[in-house]
């Protein structure tokens, strides 16, 4: 497909040369995120079965001037959509100029129509143009610079939350372990699956975490907080262009009593500093949620996020757990035995994207 002299093509992410070129563009762009990278696209595709597509705008010089990563998320319960990027908090159009934005937008809508997909969701990036709905204020982003040392980091936490953190730091039964081995993945999944069950949310397939960790290589790891040998809190983190990005994290029921979530993120800040990272990006939370309030109490200032959607029939799929239609299901899910939730959950969650 052509727009003026610009070509838009679907990259073959199995081709090392095309994959390397796309990665170089993302890593060299100020607005690039891990969720624009081929590693995210392929990791999510392998982990959930949702097909990945990478649209690229190519200048007459042959250079990439824009990218749009997409997942075709399909679910019998929630419908289907093209999502940039699936299972991510960011994504959207990544381009050098308005011409590339227009060309990629047109190609995206053409792809949706060709496949009979009635909606498209872009999580971040510039406005796609006319005919797209803007969604502002439903989610908040949280990020701040990493402090110069551990003491300065501690003082950056507001007093009330700092007192809770000090209790965890004084608990000599707690220890930290960081790694990328199978045992770290298994411990993370045990903790994370219990955490989301307690929130009334289906857990993602274990393979998703395994594939994303493998795809990102040294740009991802798992941090565990253990009480003796028992994992209590765990987080899978991405590292991107100087940013620490904790992504899938949680704690078991005892985490609140032991303050291990506070300890986990504090130690992750120190780990990021040791890796040469400059910013701690706490990701997004829903406006008005307990999670958003917790991040604010940790010293992070919320910033409203903007998303865009397009629909052939004017309707947008509803995967918001705060929707009234889901409240009874969430309360029932919290009561499921963990083995049952872990067996059924992945079949549902792979369609939430």
From TrEMBL:
SUPFAM superfamilies in the record: Acyl-CoA N-acyltransferases (Nat)
Gene3D superfamilies: 3.40.630.30
Pfam families per the UniProt record, alphabetical: Acetyltransf_6 (PF13480)
BioF2-like acetyltransferase domain boundaries: 159-296
InterPro entries: Acyl_CoA_acyltransferase, BioF2-like_GNAT_dom, PEP-CTERM_FemAB-rel, PG_Glycine_Bridge_Synth
Stated name of the protein: FemAB
Lineage: Bacteria, Pseudomonadati, Pseudomonadota, Alphaproteobacteria, Sphingomonadales
């Amino acid at each position: 497909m052509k727009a003026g002299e610009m070509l838009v093509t679907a990259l073959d992410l199995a081709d090392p040369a095309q994959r390397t070129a796309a990665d170089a563009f993302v890593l060299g762009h100020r607005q690039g995120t891990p969720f624009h990278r081929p590693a995210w696209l392929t990791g999510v595709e392998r982990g959930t079965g949702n097909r990945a597509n990478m649209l690229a705008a190519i200048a007459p010089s042959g250079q990439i001037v824009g990218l749009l990563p997409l997942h075709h998320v399909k679910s019998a319960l929630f419908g289907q959509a093209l999502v940039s990027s699936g299972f991510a908090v960011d994504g959207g159009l990544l381009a050098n100029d308005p011409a590339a934005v227009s060309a990629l937008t047109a190609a995206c809508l053409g792809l949706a129509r060709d496949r009979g997909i009635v909606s498209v969701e872009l999580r971040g990036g510039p406005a796609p143009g006319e005919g797209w709905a803007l969604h502002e204020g439903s989610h908040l982003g949280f990020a701040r610079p990493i402090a110069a040392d551990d003491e300065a980091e501690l003082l950056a936490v507001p007093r009330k939350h700092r007192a809770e953190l000090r209790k965890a730091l004084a608990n000599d039964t707690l220890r930290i372990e960081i790694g990328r081995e199978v045992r770290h993945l298994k411990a993370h999944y045990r903790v994370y699956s219990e955490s989301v069950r307690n929130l009334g949310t289906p857990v993602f397939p274990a393979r998703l975490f395994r594939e994303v960790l493998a795809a990102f290589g040294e740009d991802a790891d798992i941090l565990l907080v253990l009480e003796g040998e028992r994992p209590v809190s765990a987080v899978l983190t991405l590292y991107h262009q100087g940013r620490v990005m904790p992504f899938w994290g949680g704690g078991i029921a005892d985490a609140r009593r032991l303050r291990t979530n506070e300890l986990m993120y504090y130690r992750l800040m120190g780990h990021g500093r040791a890796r040469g990272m400059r910013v701690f990006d706490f990701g997004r939370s829903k406006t008005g949620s307990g999670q958003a309030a917790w991040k604010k109490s940790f010293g992070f200032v919320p910033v409203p996020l903007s998303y865009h959607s397009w629909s052939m029939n004017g309707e947008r799929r509803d995967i918001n757990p705060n929707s009234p239609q889901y409240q009874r299901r969430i309360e029932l899910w919290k009561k499921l035995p963990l083995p049952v939730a872990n067996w059924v959950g992945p079949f549902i969650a792979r369609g939430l994207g």
